[in-house]
From TrEMBL:
MF term (GO), any: fucokinase activity
Similarity comment text for this entry: Belongs to the GHMP kinase family.
Residue span, GHMP kinase C-terminal domain: 225-290
Biological process (GO), any one: GDP-L-fucose salvage
UniProt keywords, alphabetically: ATP-binding, Kinase, Nucleotide-binding, Transferase
Annotated SUPFAM superfamilies: GHMP Kinase, C-terminal domain (SSF55060), Ribosomal protein S5 domain 2-like (SSF54211)
Keyword ATP-binding listed: yes
Species whose genome carries this gene: Kordia antarctica
Protein name per its UniProtKB record: D-glycero-alpha-D-manno-heptose 7-phosphate kinase
EC number annotated for this UniProt entry: 2.7.1.168
Length: 324
């Protein structure tokens, strides 16, 4: 049996600039961090050597890759040339469609697991690139940041060049500052699940190119703020980034999301954003600890708070039994 653990991520600024429709014209950039919420993928030999069994939100038992109903798994199994006689299962800490890159964590985790199963060595960059190419082949409107965040882990600046190359620059923070920053971030599940692909299709890249360039510039402002250990700048930049992102498409926010955001600000938060493409999922707020009780009380119990911590590992094998 092989078990891989692949993290979800929170993206602070730059989301939307990692789409080819933008970065092929102007370099894109994102700052994100993986967190200690994970996608677990397990695989082991299946009792019936002529079958493939898959367990996710449903269970499939098929005689060939071509019969697989889950189109992403079918594409991955085809890419990895998987033979019959395998059982693969997935378990996640967070449901899909909530803005934390779950689809990419799933893709990276499955690819990583199958590579180990096939005794293939795959580095983190190749893992992320392959995951992106697979997802892009299925879903035309998809960004490039999530696969790299899931594969590498940690707090990073990712830059997306016009030729499609991705450059990763780890942002190395003093451990005390990083812990203090983590404590100032509040995460709330605001409900419902949505299709990231449909929202990304609504992004008006031509009309909003100037806004996306401003969002890219904010990424470097945030990098400077982190390196200067400036909490006040972090909150301000998060707020400015959210206002810019909302202007890209009328599907990114809605009345409920706006009300939640305004409520948090009135109660002491200095900035925040809806994670992911928009419309649903998780909201992240920057808030000094002395005001956090007010923010939490104003949003709970309607909206559930989730504790989280930054993590550094990225996708990794956490169990491997070669005797099975």
């Amino acid at each position: 049996m092989i078990i891989t653990r692949t993290p979800f991520r929170i993206s602070f600024v730059g989301g939307g600039t990692d789409i080819p429709e933008f970065y092929k014209l102007h370099k894109g950039a994102v700052i994100s961090s993986s967190i200690n919420k994970y996608m677990y993928i397990s695989s082991h030999p299946f009792f019936d050597k002529n079958k493939i069994r898959l367990k996710y939100s449903q269970t499939e038992t098929v005689s060939s890759i071509g019969e697989i109903q889950h189109e992403l798994l079918k594409r991955i199994f085809t890419e990895m040339n998987v033979s019959n006689g395998i059982e693969l299962s997935s378990i996640a800490d967070i449901v899909s469609g909530t803005g934390m890159g779950s689809s990419s964590s799933f893709t990276v985790g499955v690819l990583h697991n199958l590579a180990v199963q096939n005794k293939k060595v795959i580095d983190k960059n190749d893992l992320a690139h392959t995951a992106y190419e697979i997802e892009r082949s299925l879903y035309a409107a998809i960004g490039k940041q999530d696969q790299y965040a899931a594969s590498f882990g940690g707090l990073n600046l990712f830059e997306f060049s016009k030729n499609g190359a991705v450059t990763r620059t780890p942002i190395l923070l003093n451990s005390d500052f990083k812990t203090a920053l983590n404590k100032r971030l509040l995460l709330f599940y605001v409900g419902s699940r949505t299709s990231t692909k449909n929202i990304l299709k609504s992004y008006e890249y031509e009309k909003k190119r100037t806004v996306l360039i401003q969002m890219t510039d904010l990424v470097y402002d945030l990098k400077n703020a982190l390196e200067k250990e400036s909490f006040s700048d972090f909150g301000r930049i998060l707020h400015e980034g959210w206002l810019l992102k909302k202007s890209i498409s009328n599907q990114i926010s809605n009345t409920e999301i706006d009300t939640i955001y305004e409520t948090a600000l009135k109660n002491g938060a200095k900035g925040g954003k809806l994670l992911g493409a928009g419309a649903s999922g998780f909201m992240l707020f920057y808030c000094e600890e002395k005001y956090q009780a007010n923010v939490i009380e104003s949003l709970q119990p309607t909206y559930r708070r989730f504790d989280f911590s930054f993590e550094e590992d990225g996708s990794k094998v956490i169990f491997q039994d070669t005797l099975i």
